[in-house]
Structures are given as structure tokens and as C-alpha cells.
């Protein structure tokens, strides 16, 4: 399980240090793709395979399903860590998430998310303001 929040920077070559606590969970090879809310999702190989199976089961006749699957898979890239624990994030993914320098890497249960620092701060502040209201809506999930 991934959890926690870490501040790192993308270097001039597009490399980002992956927090040491996340490295073992991600393994030798993992997948980085466009996520929701303009961040990047990072999945260990096994979690990616589970997600892939679920997305394959979506109905091909649904325009929304087709659009989501296209968006998700077309942005995906297989990545690995270098000897210093860094991942090279492909240019199109850096552009999508607006990763220029300062980043926040967070653990979200079965995946890691990479955010531009400003975007994370904005999202996090907005979510904190409505946390109680969101929790009330989750009562249907026995939270």
C-alpha cells in the first residue's frame, strides 16, 4: 500500500526522484499514465494488469467508455527506476501534469500520484475545505 506525501523536483532532463518508501512497491518496472485532475498515476505492474482487465471489460458500444480507455492507455508509458531511484517522465506526461520543477508525490493506496506542487496545493486546499461534506456523501459506502 502506498501512502504519504513527499516533495521532490523534476530535473532539467525530466527525471524525478521516487520516494524510497515507494520504490519496493513499484518494483523494477511500472506504468505511468495521465491521471484524473491533471496529475499522473503510477501503477505497479500487477495493479496495472488488474486495471487493464477491468477497462477491457467496459462496453465497446459506450462512447464514454471508449473515450476513457483511449485517454488512459494512449498516455501510458512503461518506466523503470535508475540507480539513483529516479524515473524519467516522458515529455507528453510532464506537459499534461504541468511538471516543470517542484512536484508532490503522494501514495494513494494501490497507486502513486505525481502532481505539480501548485496544482496539489490548490486541490488539497479545496478538498480540505469540503472534507466533512465529502465524508457525509460516503455514508452509502459504509465509511
TrEMBL record:
Q: What is this protein called?
A: Transcriptional regulator MraZ
Question: Which keywords does this Swiss-Prot/TrEMBL entry list?
Answer: Cytoplasm, DNA-binding, Repeat, Transcription, Transcription regulation
The record's gene field reads: mraZ
Q: Which InterPro entries match?
A: MraZ, MraZ_C, MraZ_dom, MraZ_N, MraZ_sf, SpoVT-AbrB_dom, SpoVT-AbrB_sf
Give the UniProt family note.
Belongs to the MraZ family.
Q: Cross-referenced SUPFAM superfamilies, in alphabetical order?
A: AbrB/MazE/MraZ-like
Q: Which Pfam families match?
A: MraZ
- Please describe the quaternary structure of this protein: Forms oligomers.
PANTHER family in the cross-refs: TRANSCRIPTIONAL REGULATOR MRAZ
Q: Which residues form the signal peptide?
A: none
Among its keywords, does the record have Transcription? Answer: yes
PROSITE patterns, per the entry: SPOVT_ABRB (PS51740)
- Give all residue intervals belonging to the SpoVT-AbrB domain: 5-47, 76-119
| Locations listed in the record | Cytoplasm, Nucleoid
This protein's major location comes to cytoplasm
- Classify the source by domain of life: Bacteria
Q: Which organism is it from?
A: Effusibacillus consociatus
